[in-house]
User: What shape does this take?
Amino acid sequence: MSSNKTEIAIEGRLTSSNPLDAVPDEIPFDVPYGPPVSLDQAQAVIHAAVAEAKKRNWKMNIAVADSGGNLVAFQRMDGAMLASIQIAEHKARAAATFRRPTKVFADGIQLMHLNYLLAFDGIIASRGGIPLIEQGKIVGAIGCSGGTDSQDEVVSKAGAAVID
Assistant: This one.
């Protein structure tokens, strides 16, 4: 095989075997930031999330951050795990600042083995952080922690539905 054919064959194998070599036409999660979520909105999000958690008899910590990732409102349900306070805040902050649900990071690391994601400051590879989208713009995010990742995500989705 000539040198040129070998190079083409090697390039073809590399690009087809590495999904990270794909070049998307658009930036993923390119949702613009909007004005920050109001306190009233944040409290309504928390109220809906708490209602969902109570319905299921789950004890959760629930945080709402604004579009800049700053804490706006927080509630710790009676008996919720203390360590989950910071985790809920972290999920809300990451979902707002990275403009995507934290499930994307969990899937990227656990399913796709994209371990380089762990090197990014502010990442949390755990479900339960969801951006709050109002009129096509991110106004904040909710983060829940206290149960399994899937439980945290269910409660976050219930809260996010108030805004979305």
Summary: Strands lie at 61-66, 71-76, 129-134, 137-145. The chain has a mean pLDDT of 91. The radius of gyration is 19 Å.
